[in-house]
Amino acid sequence: MTDSPDEQPAPETTPSAPGGTPPGGGGLRARWARVRAGAEAGMSTAEYAVGTVAACAFAAVLYRVVTGGSVVEALGDLVASALATLS
Q1: Which of 17-21, 29-33, 42-46 is the least confident region?
Q2: 43-to-6, 32, 46, 54 alpha-carbon distances in Å
Q3: 67-86 burial string, b = 16+ CB within 10 Å, else e?
Q4: CA gap 48, 53 in Å, rounded
């Protein structure tokens, strides 16, 4: 056997129990139970979509608030008073 990167190692085979399932209860029902018992590691595609839409909506609301007349005027007054204090 050569150690070239193109060769794939042979898959390991597990001996079957007399009933035809691998040892450790490898049936579909047992496997699905192990999958469902595991902790969720991240968000699914639908959750990413909902999160993205929520972030865009929040950004739009924040943009409208910051570009509104009262906020721009308040920021202008704040900058003017800071400049007047430094002079």
Answers
A1: 17-21
A2: 35, 19, 8, 15
A3: eeeeeeeeeeeeeeeeeeee
A4: 9
| Verdict on whether the full-model pTM lies above 0.70 | no
Q: How many domains does the chain have?
A: 1
In-domain check, residue 47:
yes
Does 23 reside within a domain? no
∠ CA 32-36-40, nearest 5°, is 140
Phi (first) and psi of residue 53, to 5 degrees: -65, -40
Single-letter code of the amino acid located at 74: A
Is 30 domain-assigned?
Answer: no
Tracing tokens 């035809």 back to the chain, one arrives at 20
Q: Which domain holds residue 65?
A: 43-86
